[in-house]
Structures are given as C-alpha cells and as structure tokens.
C-alpha cells in the first residue's frame, strides 16, 4: 500500500485528479465552509495538492483565480474593512461583494514570506496576469462591474468594458468575462489580446451563463425559464476562431424544481456532465444524473445513468488517468468536513486525504468560513473569515453572520500547518479574533535553503506539539536530502564544568520540510 505522501506525490507529478461520492464537495476552486469554532488555526495533517502551470508569461499558476502566482510573487486582493458586507447569509461574503470599498492589490513574496501592497482598487473577483499587466474587475454598483487592466505597480490603467473575469486561456491572451449589468443571466464576452471581444449567442439571444473552462474549452448553458426549465449546454474552444457547439439538452427536471450542473469532466474527446434537480429555497435534492457526449459533437449528449431522490446525491465522477489542460482556474477537488474542520483533497483514485485542519472547533461562540481556497503551485491559499451569528439579519432558517476578521492563509505542500500571511479586522466595533495560544510562524520556502530554515522548522514542530523547547537547537550534520538537528540544554556542573543534556535529534527533509524526531 502506498503511503499518503507517496500516493499524493504521484498525483502532483501526473496532474491527475477527480472525485468521489462524498458530501460537501465542490468542483470549482472556490468553496465555503462555516463551522462553529474558536477563531484560531490548528496546524495539523499532511498536505496534498495538484499544481497547474501556465506558460504564456513565464510560470503562472492558477491564472484567473483569487490567488495567482507569477515567479516568486502570489497576487491577491486584500479586501478592506469596508469592502465587503458586514453581514451575510451563511457567512458567504465573497460570492457577491456589493460595496465599492477600498481594497488593495497585494503580492506575497514566497522568498521571504512578506506581504507587499502594490496599489489600491475598489474591485472584487478574480485576477489575471498576462504580459506584465494585471486584469481586474471593479465594482461600480450591484450587480454592475467594469473591467480594467493595469501595470503591476498600479500605473498605466486601461478601461476595457463591463463585466467580471471568470477564466482565461493559459497564456492570458483570451479572457472570458460574465456581464451582469443586465440583471438577467450572464452574457459571456470573449475578450482577446487587443481587448476587443465577441458575445456568445444562441437562437439570436445573448442570455447565457458560464459553467466552466477545462482543457482549453469553455462551457456555458442557456435556458429560458419562461418556457421551460431545460438547460442547453454549449462548448467552444478557447481560441479566437473557435465556434460554439451545442452539446445537447439536460431536461430531467422534477416537478416544481430547478436543474443545476454539478460537474464537467473531460477524458480525451469525451465530456462527462453530472446534474441534479433541487426544489424550494432550501434546494432539497430531488434526483439527478450523468450524461456524456463528444466535445465537438452537436447534440451528442446522452444519458448514462439517473439517480432518484433516495440517493445521497449525484456521485462524483471518477475518471482514472484524467488530465486537465492548461486552464488552471478549475483545479482539483477540495472540500471541507464540517465535523472536524479539515480541508481535504480528492486524488485520481477518488480517495480523499486531509491537507490540514483549518478550523479549531474547541469553542461555540464564533464561526469560521473558508472562502476562495485554491491550489497555487505547491500551496493552498485562501481567505478564512471569523464571524459571529447575526440573528437580526437571518432570514427564516437561513443563518446570517457578522464578519469579525479575515485571515489570508497559506498551507504549504506536505506541511499541514496553516500560516497567516495577513489579517484584516472588520468594522470599528469588531472584536479581536480569539487566540489559541499558539504562534503561527512563517514557513520557510521549500525546498529549504539553509540550516537556519531547518532549525526554524524544528522550533515550529516543538511549539505545535506543545513540547519543551531546549535552550540550544542547531544543525549537527547535513546530507543531500536531510538536515540533522540537535536539540539540547547545556547543564552547569559547577567549577567551570558543564555537559549537554540531549532532548532529541530531528531529521528535517530539505525537499518537503518534514520533521521526524529520532525518538
């Protein structure tokens, strides 16, 4: 049997991932979790992740994401205290920011673990990096957004048009935006390198909605609720000359319910689409199914299997050997378990592995919500909100929460610790986040560059496990793969004599940062 690390390491190198039938899983890279918890991180678990690389402008990871890595810099938006609503149902603050408040575009330096502010903006949503410029969305009213580009230092701003960016091609030259200014279904605009564009149409109309971007293909749906609730699925290559193909219709809808596309998976030229039918404001599951078709085949979608309301939900599609293309904003399958506060990843075998514990559940007075969590290179980045219940703004059974603070967190691969890059306190009367009593140290970059990094990791290891910290911790020896660290005290024997009292020896692996005690 493979160990967890070996199994996930294979997943990283092959770029394969898929899912399983577990609950709480979302196929997109953004997801949300609310659990009642003390507002503190509990570093634990083992990290497993899939990295995706874009090659148009050097190495760009997770382009068109909330966190985008270019070189040693990870770009993200740090929302100001007044940039998000202070109360939201389910604590879902990121899904639709309505306030044009002050925020900053920042970058995190993976070399020295520091955060730098580049320039201010009043934006929201995803970031695209291409040709030395950032492409961003700015709020001009709800639900109205406008697009602009700017140099990485904030200069040379260019206005582009209306909408929000949702994905882009691997080199950033093709950017897809969802225009929500109409208040109707999204209008998909394909924006190319010269900032001109085209609008996706069906039947002479422009009422379409973005679904996903995978393997160089854009998927969107079209429907007319005035006539029926069927969904027509279209796809097109993400190129200037690509033409839309109508894959087919999903019409298996239960009475008084609505259809929702769950997943889109691709293997070679075959596309697999799962869907479900939900009813009422509580979105009660009524059943669903699985369809498959050919990427370039008109009306090729056919039903493979259907599921009734007695099932737990539509099982996740597992395609062994499945590979994703260069569109990294739709990365691997992350989910959060509300019972243990753990962040999990599904691998290519449909098995899950805990990456880290993201919520401490020792308290009941506050809650935490993980938003915008994405795999970027060899780390998971995300925004962890600390909230308190807001009964005044709750609607029926739908609980509202007031935002207390937002932590921008980083979880390195094969580490399992949660590192806080930055924290924003929300509102003048915001209560400070509860302290777990543990210091969240800055994680050295991987692979380790010096013996000092190995010593720092041993100190973190002792702190995380509430162990005694000896007075001397130093590197004793080194091989190509491992630093051996000696932790000891110097005991005074009197008369100018002394001896060392060894607490333990630790092997610190350069590539992964793993710390293994000798005894």
Structure characteristics:
single chain, 519 residues, mainly beta, six-stranded antiparallel β-sheet, five-stranded antiparallel β-sheet, 2 helices, 35 strands, 5% helix, 46% strand, globular, disordered N terminus
Describe it for me?
Strands 2, 6, 28, 29, 30 and 31 form a 6-stranded antiparallel sheet that branches. Strands 3-4-5-7-8 form a 5-stranded antiparallel sheet, with no helix packed on it. Helices cover 5% and strands 46% of the residues. It is mostly beta strands and 519 residues long. The two termini are 25 Å apart. The protein is built from 2 helices and 35 strands. A hairpin with an 8-residue loop joins β18 and β19. The chain is globular.
Per DSSP, the total helix count is 2
- Overall 3D form: globular
Query: Could you report the average pLDDT, rounded to the nearest whole number?
Result: 74
Biggest sheet overview: 6 strands, antiparallel
Structural class: mainly beta
Taken as a percent bin, the fraction of beta residues is over 45%
Beta strand count: 35
Distance between the termini: 25 Å
Poorly predicted ranges: 1-32, 34-57, 321-331, 428-441
Helix content: under 10%
Cα gyration radius (Å): 24 Å
